Each structure stands twice: as C-alpha cells, then as structure tokens.
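Schema walkthrough. Field components (list of strings):
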Amino acid sequence: MAHLESVPMFWRRMKSLYSLIGVECLNCGKKYFPPRLICPECGGKEMKDYRFKGTGKVVSYSIIDVPPKGLKYQTPYGLAIVELDEGVRVTGQLVGCNLGEIKAGMRVETTFRKIIAVNKNGVIQYGYKFRPEGYPRINNGEKK
Amino acid sequence: MRNVAVIGVGMTKFGELWDYSLRQIFTMAAIEALEDAGCSNRDIEAFYVGNMSAGLFIGQEHLGALLADNAGLKNIPAMRVEGACASGGLALREAYLTIKAGEYDLVMVGGIEKMSDSPCTEDVTTTLGAAADQEWETFVGLTFPGAYALIAKAHMERYGTTKEQLAMVAVKNHKNGKNNPKAQFRREITIEQVLASGIVADPLSLLDCSPISDGGAAVILASEDMAKKFSDTPVWILGSGQASDTLALHDREDLTSLKATRLAAEKAYTAANMGPKDVNFAEVHDCFTIAEIVATEDLGFFHPGGGGKAVEEGLTEVDGKIPINPSGGLKAKGHPVGATGVAQVVSVVEQLRGEAHKRQVNRAETALTHNVGGSGATAVVHIFSR
Amino acid sequence: MMQNGICGIVGYGSYIPRFRIKIEEIAKVWGKDGSRIAKGLGVVEKSVPDMDEDTITIAVEAAKNALKVAEIDPSEINAIYTGSESHPYTVKPTASTVAEALGAVPCVTCADLEFACKAGTAGIQMCMGLVASDEIKYGMSIGADCAQGKPGDALEYTASAGGAAYIIGKNGCVAKIEGTFSFTTDTPDFWRRDGAEFPCHAARFTGEPAYFKHVIGGAQGLMDKLGTTINDYDYFVFHQPNAKFPLRTAISLQIPTEKLKEGLVVRHIGNSYSGSSLLGLARILDIANPGERILVTSYGSGAGSDAFSLITTDLLPEKRKNAPNVDDYIRLKEYVSYALYAKHRSKIRGI
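Field assembly_structure (string):
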C-alpha cells in the first residue's frame, strides 16, 4: 500500500489535517472541506482559505470492527459523519469517550491525534479526530 | 439508433478460486460466453472489461490488452473500464453505446476481479477503501462496510428499518443462491445466524456483507442484424442509464438514498419507455443487506422507507411480487467487484431465456440490473427484455 | 543567571490523557503488595495515553490550551521548544509539528530538548532569553511525555503521560518570572541509551546524590540569589517522581506541607516526566490568587534542576478560565487493566 507511506501525499494535506483549513468561494460564499479549486455550486474559481472552528454534531456513526491497514490496534473505534457548525460535513474517528456513549446528534469538537503510521520506521501521519464538545469537562457524554 | 442484444453469456463459479489466476479466470468466462453465443473469438470486434483494482490487488494494470490477448481476441480495440464496484455495469454500457452508435456490431464485455491473492483482510479492506475518498474517508478510518453502516444507521433512524429486516435480505439471497450452481455460498442461513455472525461495522454483521470473491463473467453484445445471425433467444437491452454523485458519503444530500441510482434509473426507464411497475424482476447491488433495501426504494419498486417492510412481507422472494436478486445477489453469489455488473447480466439473461431452473422467476419477460460504485458515487442501470 | 521580572508567563495549558491504571493493578501482575507500594509512593494511579496519543499529540493539546489562556495570535509565537524523553522521532522534531498544528509557522525557531524530566523548564529559560532580549515577542516551551516504564521495574508504577505548555512574553502576563537559577552536575542516576526501549536507573543512588542534591541546591540557590526565604512563598512545586520525594524535600527545607500539597498532581496521575513539575505548576496557577508567589523547581536526571520564582498577577483569574484546568483532566478518567495498559504502551511483543 504505497500511498499510505507517501510523504508528499500526507504533507500536502497537513494544513487541512492539522487545522481543518478548507476554502470559501469568493463568488457565492459557500464553504468546502477539503479545499477545492472550483465551486460545484456556482462554478466560481476564486477561493480563499477558510479555517473551520472544529465544532459540530454527529450526523451518523458506526463502530468499526474490521479496520483498514494501519488501524488494527485502534480497533474497535467509533467513526462518524460530523456536520460542522458551518454546515460542511466531514468524516472522522470519535475518541475521548467510550463507544457506548456515542449518540447521533451529540456535539463534538476536533482534537489532534495520530491517524496512521503503517510501520515502525515510517512517517507518523497526524490529523483531526472528534471528541465530545467541552472535553474534558464532560460527564457520560453530556457536557457538565 | 440501433437495437442491441445480448447473444451469449458466461461466468465462472464465484468464490476463493485458489487454483486460478486473474487471467485464467477471465479466459474461462470468455470461452463460455463465446460458446454460448456460438461465435468464435475472431468474430469479436471490440472488448471492454470492467475491473476495479487489479493494480492494488495483484499489481496488474492494462487489463484490456492482457485479457484480450488471453481470450484470443487478437489486435482488437480493448479497454478496461473502472468505476469501483460499478466497473462491470459501466463496461456493459460503454459497449452498448458503441453498438448503438454503429461503431461495432459484435462486442465482448467482461468483468473480472481477483481478490484472494491479497496477503490479508486488512489489505483487501484498504484496497476496497479506494472506492471511497481515499484521502478524507478511508484515511481517517472509514471502511466500505463502515460507509454502508452509516447509511444503515441513518435509514434505521429515519424509517425504523430493523436489523432483522436487514438479516432477512441475507436469508432470502442465500436461499436463492442455494439454487445457483455458480454461487459462492450455496447454503441457507437463518436470521439468528446473521444477527450473531459478529459485528463488522455496527450495525452490520459479517453475514450482512457480501464476501471477498474471485470470479469472472463475460457477455457478447450484438447489433440487431448480427444478433439474428447468431441467436434464437437474443435478450434486448431496452434502456441504459448512468449517473454520478459526490465520492465522499459526507458530501451527499441524503444518507438514506443513493441519488445516483435514482438518476440512472430515471434515464434507463425513460429510454426503455417503462416504469418500475413494468419490471418483472431485478438484480440489484446488494454489497450489503442495507444496500438492497435502499436500492429497491431508489429504483422505485417501493416508496422511500418501505424497503424493509417489503422484504419482511416476502414481496422480493423469487416467487414474490417483485423478485429481487433471484441469483442470490452479491451476498450469496459472491462479489468479485469488477465482475459483478456483468454477472448480473448473465443471471438476467438465463432467467429471460427460461434457463434458470430451480430459481426461475415466473413470467420473466423484463428485468433490470443495478450496479453501484463505492457508497453510491456511481450508479448504472440497464433494462432488458425477451 | 539574573532576571528582573521583565518577562513572565502569558499563557499556560495542560493535558492529561484520560485512561488510568491503579498501582495495585500493576502490582498484581508482579506478585507484589499493591496497597503497600501505593502508600509508600504516595501515588494511587497513573495516566495512560490512548492508542493514538503520543508526546506530539499531548504537546499540541497543551499548547492549544496555553494559546487560549494567552489570548494571542499563534503567528506571534516565534520560538517553540518541546522537551521530552519520549519524542516520537529521534530525528525529526516534535516542535515543528506543534508549530504547524498551532499555525505558528513559518516565522518561528524550533528545537526539541532532552534533559530527562527537566527538558520543558530548560525551554522556558531559553524563551526567557529570547524574549528579554527583544529578539522575539512570545516564546513557548512544552514539557510532555509518554514515559516508558520497564515491566516489573519500580518505576513502572509511576511512569505516566501528560504535558504542559508555557508561553513566555513581556506583556499580558498571568505570572511574572522574578528570576531563575539552575543547578547542574554530571550525575548519572537515570539514563536511556540510544535505541534502548526502557530507561535504567541506579536505584537508591537516584535519591540523595541525585534528586535531593539538585532540587534542594536549585531551590536554595534561587532563594539565595533573589534574597528570598521560604516565608516569601505561598506555594512550592517540585519535580514529582512520586509524592515521597517532594515531601521529603519540603521537610528538608522546612516548608510547611500546606504550601506543597496543592501542586502534588503525582498522587492522581503519576510521574509524567517532562510534564511533571510543569503540570504541578499549572495546578497552582489554576487556583492561586493574584499577588501570590510560587517557587517551582524541576529536576532532570543526569542531573540538574531549574528553579523559578514566580509572582501571579491580576490577569490570572480571568485568563485561566479560557481553557480547561488540571483538575478537569484529573477528574475525567477511565480505568484499564494491565493487559490493556500493556497494549496501549506497546509492551506486548509484536505490536
């Protein structure tokens, strides 16, 4: 799986992975994550960087028991489609709470974690995951 | 515009075919199709083959040329078509369009995937993850079952679809598969067995998921004049429709329906001058049990949210109101990814010719095949008739 | 080493992973009396990182909290130093990943530091120099670790994970640094050779000639330099390999225990190595009133101590509300068995 060890493929996406930086269409104002070159809505080609706040809610989630390569020791893990407060959706793992505490609709925020490191000698790829909003001031999944 | 017919079909058994390589498997299917059509390898004018990921599975690209060579199709135009799990259906459509446009009269369509040569399940999971957004879905941990699990969860939340109803899809398809000599699984299972088969991606258990399979399928398409030369029982393609949607599931408008399916079906129905009520049976893309339920809704057989109840009421059984996947579907027949779309045609043609034996659908006059790529980013629908 | 309070802590942040393992759970595996060991160390349980956490992720989280408290733009941070004994790479800095994650790139100097458990405080001194000389506006130093505990070794009971970040600047300080003093000698009490998985130590030698000599030397040396005495301080924070050592230090220096106990986070989270004294300090800053004086002395094996005299300002009570505090992290916990702990710390062969 060569692409999992490609340095440029990871490095190129760092700003988005580390800081949730997407774009905003200068023409119609629609926001996208990850960045796009052309706006599918209005066809506009001028985009500016937009940093998403990182807070949102879980739209749908699953518990993954059979993982892709590199995630064996994190399994089982929660995985969700999160709708960010700006209206854009992203997919990400859920951490910082027990699997049974994950609910559709729960409020979440981003956290910085290891995504994958396929072997002991390769580059470690970091990025965003989601945890209950207000962490660590949470109690059984509800904000204290 | 000319009419196009299927005049020959062939497929290998689907399963873990340890003894045969990718090229051997395809060649076997191609030989069967040529014999069934009664034409020789030298008659074929062009070749389209659907395959998702030979590059990642076995390090082999350039399948058009490789397989044309292996199947004895010398020097003809040959091309591999890729749209993840819809590769087979897309190859069919490409070939169909060329004949319709008058470019060729006799074309072979192939579908092939060799998945069991991968060193481990993890590698297969990651390769299949290439059908999703590799950078923003698979990378962060979404697997193929995971994507459909998210769809299942959303469908269950909105419509009250139950895990039991999902299991019933698997039970029905295994029952059908038992009567299909080419199927990977030929044993019946129970609802309890499905529910207890171990979670792959909650709420989907192992038996909610189609298997990892090897297999090949081939069909011969002909223009109307050519068809009459070779076949007494041509099966006509009345309509073909295709559509795409955002690759990432999180960019879709609605998690409980595949827009690409709805759009592709609309186009196919319009071209065939038919509606869902005119279809006698269908082979739909049940990569996971939830996918079959959603497909029957998107194809217009049942209203949105009604797919689960329909299975429960037996409407989609082989002797039901609208038989779905009488071949056993991807679930029991097997899902060698690139071959599936073409294998669906093989199953449909056998039914329409009245050659399906123990799994024969009564009054099989018209049929629909439905093939999806990834979690719904590509969909292709074809309508057939006797 | 003289400072005259021209710079201070503009923001600080902590992070402790939420998993815990009890001392008794570890002791069971080795056939030891867990409650006796826990009592002797003065430690109940220690923190354990999640499978996808490491020194870099902990450093980033602590740094983000520090930024929230400081209320400054990350691009104004022109130096980032990360001190740890468990940098994920031996070559490739933790600090540059932190800088990228914070948005402090590219106009920033970065380097990783190592001096056992005092690498983070050494970084604070480095920032002080750059800030006081007006070379930079703000500098950040982070002490964070996912400490390696050798199975069956005495230190396995306390080697934990956590980190704290400090932003140093001249303006907007929540605490002024009145001065710093360091006490260093070549004393090989605890070490880890390049490529070795677990550190080694010289058992009882790690006490008197190592920890106590340098911590007391550092604290006393700072007070001598500044002309302060024990009575001038409201709080004391010492490096905390366990609760016993800082308590004995307090007795030696005749420090009343009330002035020490608020900073003794080790009881609940173990020894987070480069995070240890910095997390203790963070807890004091979480609860101190304006105008209170803190003496913090870190200790790094090998050996040395960095001592700081701090005085809190009026800005502290409001600014510290911007981020979670140490108690928030201590309170959120999930216990794991030794088996799960071994999996999390890659102590199972084949992981």
